[in-house]
Specification:
With 431 residues, this protein is of the alpha/beta class. The model has no long low-confidence stretch (mean pLDDT 97). The strands form three sheets. It has an eight-stranded parallel beta barrel with strand order 3-4-5-6-8-10-11-12, surrounded by five helices. The protein is 46% helix and 10% strand. The protein is globular and about 80 Å long. It is found in: Cytoplasm. Its EC number is 5.3.1.5. InterPro entries: Xyl_isomerase-like_sf, Xylose_isom_bac, Xylose_isomerase.
Length: 431
């Protein structure tokens, strides 16, 4: 045990409490037939909460954590602190990259041994903690060896190193009972076409992903393979830009029934979409898996990974999730980090608690909108003309037949209001 959170009690649902508590997140409250905890499936991100030093593109470390260092003793202390926070918050899940949990060794083998030792510690801690593993993943972007990508790298040795790393992380995820395995490309893209064989790199990416799926079946991993779409930053172009791009690649590689998407709010915005758009599209394409819940600073043009605090935005995201049937193996991972000036242990706990409350409020608003048919009834009315048999017949007809009907019936369709402002007012009544 550590004393990092020594003065912070375990959080409970206490709407009128003065100090740290949940004002809206009540794990046992029933929402659309499920406990709130089971609808939201919260997860803490190991990397931002325990490995991030508080830097930004223009300044270095501001956090002073007792486990910051490159020794296994530091890694063990970090694991102690992490599970203490998981227990304080009562979160059902956590997520990690390999480099988050272990120091880099002098060789791949040494890094593997360090990693496996911490995985052993996780397994032991999970025997007495309610917190399970939502997903594991490999960091194939931070080390300088990945500066030109991992699966798409022009150096086959980097491809090999990446494959070995993913195998290691998949094995660990399987052993710990993880419900998903995530692939985040990070640098799977290019800075300039002047030195890039785009076709070759796409083929390499498809082969790599196919090997991941094959290995999943070989080891009997029952979880879901997820890809996290990411536009630009850090590379000019990324091959997994958004949900539509990922789906197009999955179709090309014949993997659309094997792989789903983990959608991040911040990435959706950087791609020029809304969070709810990406979720709705993933559901429409049958590839929705999980979400990383955070937000960007809309006055800044990069991925700031802040904790969510906008209930209307969150409500629209959960509306699409609930409308699609809710999470399967996925959940709500807080891929969010403190601001550089938020230095204290209490800041870390308060950030998660506040975000969990925001999500709880959004979830309840979304559920009420669905239960009241507040948006679906006007949506059905807008498309009701397509229920007519003659309209349905057009979808299996041809241009000539349809054109003949237009002239024969003298059709003169007039525009009808989309009622956007009225619907926005409806949403505002719920949030």
């Amino acid at each position: 045990m550590s004393d990092f959170f020594a003065d912070i009690p375990k959080l409970t649902y206490a709407p009128d409490a003065e100090g740290l508590a949940f004002r809206h997140y009540n794990p046992d409250e029933m929402v659309m037939g499920k406990r709130m905890e089971d609808q939201l499936r919260f997860a803490c991100a190991y990397w931002h909460s325990f490995a991030w030093p508080g830097g930004d593109p223009f300044g270095g470390q501001t956090f002073d954590r007792p486990w910051f260092g490159d020794t296994m003793a530091d890694a063990r202390l970090k694991a102690d602190v992490a599970f203490e926070m998981f227990d304080l918050l009562g979160v059902p899940f956590f997520c990690f990259h390999d480099v988050d949990i272990r120091p880099e060794g002098e060789s791949f083998a040494e890094s593997r041994r360090n990693f496996e030792e911490i995985v052993d510690i996780f397994a032991a801690k999970m025997e007495t903690s309610k917190t399970r593993l939502l997903w594991g993943t490999a960091n194939l972007f931070s080390n300088r060896r990945f500066m030109s990508g991992a699966a798409t790298n022009p150096d086959p040795d980097v491809f090999a190193w990446s494959a070995a790393t993913v195998k290691l992380c998949m094995d660990a995820t399987h052993r710990l009972g993880g419900e998903n395995y995530v692939l985040w490309g990070g640098r799977e893209g290019y800075e300039t076409l002047l030195n890039t064989d785009l076709s070759r790199e796409l083929d390499q990416m498809g082969r790599f992903l196919s090997m991941v799926v094959d290995y999943k079946h070989k080891i009997g991993f029952p979880g879901t393979i997820l890809i996290e779409p990411k536009p630009q930053e850090p590379t000019k172009h990324q091959y997994d830009y958004d949900v539509a791009t990922v789906y197009g690649n999955l179709k090309r590689f014949g993997l659309e029934n094997e792989v789903k998407v983990n959608i991040e709010q911040g990435h959706a915005i950087l791609a020029g979409h809304s969070f709810e758009h990406e979720i709705a599209l993933a559901n429409a394409l049958g590839v929705f898996g999980s979400i990383d819940m955070n937000r960007n600073d809309y006055q800044s043009g990069w991925d700031t990974d802040q904790f969510p605090n906008n209930v209307p935005e969150v409500a629209l995201a959960y509306y699409e999730i609930l409308k699609g049937g809710g999470f399967g193996t996925g959940g709500t991972n807080f891929d969010a980090k403190l601001r550089r000036q938020s230095l204290d242990p209490e800041d870390l706990v308060a950030a998660h608690a506040g975000a969990m409350d925001v999500c709880a409020r959004g979830l309840k608003a979304a559920a009420r909108m669905l239960e009241d048919d507040a948006l679906e009834a006007p949506r059905r009315a807008r498309y009701s003309g397509w229920e007519d048999p003659q309209a349905q017949a057009m979808l299996t007809s041809d241009l000539e037949t349809i054109a003949a009907r237009v002239e024969a019936e003298g059709l003169d369709p007039q525009p009808r209001s989309g009622r956007q402002e009225i619907l926005e007012n409806v949403v505002n009544r719920y949030v």
